[in-house]
Structures are given as structure tokens and as C-alpha cells.
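Researcher: We're teaching a course module on how sequence relates to structure. For the next exercise, students receive a sequence and then see the predicted structure as C-alpha cells, so they can try to spot secondary structure elements on their own. Here is the exercise chain.
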Amino acid sequence: MRNTSFFVKLTAEQLWKGVVSVSNAGRKRGRGKRRSRVLSKNLNKGQVIGVGKENMVWPGLNAPILRGKEIVERKKLPPDPEREERLNKLRDEMFSYRSLRLSPLERGYSGTKWPGRSLGPPDPVIDEKFEGFDTRVLELKSLFKMTGTFGRTRSVSAFVITGNKNGSAGFALSKGVETMYALRKAKNKAAQRVIFVKRFEDHTIYHSFYTRFGCTKIIVHRKPKGYGLVCHRVLKTICEVLGITDIHAKIEGAVNIQNMTKAFFSWSFKSENISDNGRREGFIRG
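Model: And here is the predicted structure for the students to work with:
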């Protein structure tokens, strides 16, 4: 009688690998990345040593051998009808999807996705800390590149803005293999590109303006205190980081997040207060 066979020599993982694996030539062409992964349930989860279908007291296993001066004897306990239900419930929850829960103040533009969410202040440089700064994610997208050696490679592009809500802000674009690496890289890069934007009475812009970048055109109007931010959600995030609370903005043309940000910040180099405007027009001398 044969005690060994092909199915006994190999483990279950090796047998499944022989069925669902991809050849080296196919892997170089990018195949097999989305193949179904065999998930095995841990049937030991929830089990207690010495406790089974028959509820028994086993001295030395699930009970002490001596209790005082008396020797504990093996005996049968009343059955536990809820044991099987608990085990089945644990096994059913092993591969169940659990959505990420965030408080309403931590949510982004669309629930738990990264665009619109806060990343906190940038990392400190030596002893300099970015106190009062907050970083917001404006755009996060996946990039794919087809190579002859590794097939289809994936990377992540992160576009963020950081500011102290007091007129200072900077934005940056960065890429990385992993999401958190790209976000952290972009956050620290944005901290190195902070510029100062002039504000009128710390709540709005000095004058209405028109700006554009590429095919994106933005018309921004100055508004009194209490008006609020009536604009695109990306412009609203930029204004919150800058400390601007009252404007009205209309976008024409392409609604591109990076173009909108660059167009809005290009105005900051041209903005001028009443004194600067008067000197340029010749109404004020000196």
C-alpha cells in the first residue's frame, strides 16, 4: 500500500501555485498582477485549548491539577450552544471589507478619499518647526508606465498645498511608488516654496482681478466681510490655507486643478495694495 502520493508530498500552497501561477515570460509582460489570491481562513481563531463540542474539564489542560489539597477530576460540563455561532461569526468576518471611518471634520471632497483631507504641518527642518501650518491634498492620482522589462509599473502623483492661514502658502507636485511616500515628499517640497500673499484687512483680496494659466481662466471679485467663499472647492481650499475668507470666483475653460492653483498664485505676484497702486499711477509720490 502506498502511503505517499503527489498530493501528499506537496503542500496546499505549492499545489495552488501550480494552478494559478504565471510563467516568467508572462510576468515580464505584466500578466498575473490581478490574479485571484487564494485566501485561507485561520480555523484556530476563537478556539480555546481543551474546549470543544463536548464541554469538559481537563486537569492540566484547561483546569489546574490541584485545587487546594484536592485533585481535580475530569468531568463533563453543561453544553454551550452559543460556541458554534461565535466561531462561525469570527470566520465570516475574516475577509469582510471594513470601510475607513472618519469624523466629519477629517473628511475630504468625497468621503475618505485623500483629495481635500489634511496632512498636518510639514516635517521640521533641523530645529525649525512649521508651527501653525496645515497641508491639504488637492489632487492624488495613479500613473502607469509600460516598460519592456517590468511590464506595467504603477506610481502615485500627489499635488498638495501648505499654509499658515495668515497669508503664507506654497504648493508642490511630487511622485512616488507608494501613496504616503508621495504625499510626504510633496508636503515637504511645498514647505520650501512658501510665498506671502497680501490681503485686505486679513479677510479678502485688495482688488478684483482676472488671471489665467493654460486654458484655465479665473475671474475673482473682492467681497465684504461675511460674504464667504463662493468658488470652486479647490479655490476654497487654497483660500482657507491662505487665510482669505470672502471672495467670489468664476472659472472659465478647462477645470484643471494644477492650472487653477498656478493661475491663482500668479495673481499674488501682481497684486498691490492702495499705496502701491497710487505710486504706480502717479497719485502718490515718494
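Model: If you want an answer key for the exercise: The radius of gyration is 32 Å. The chain has a mean pLDDT of 87.
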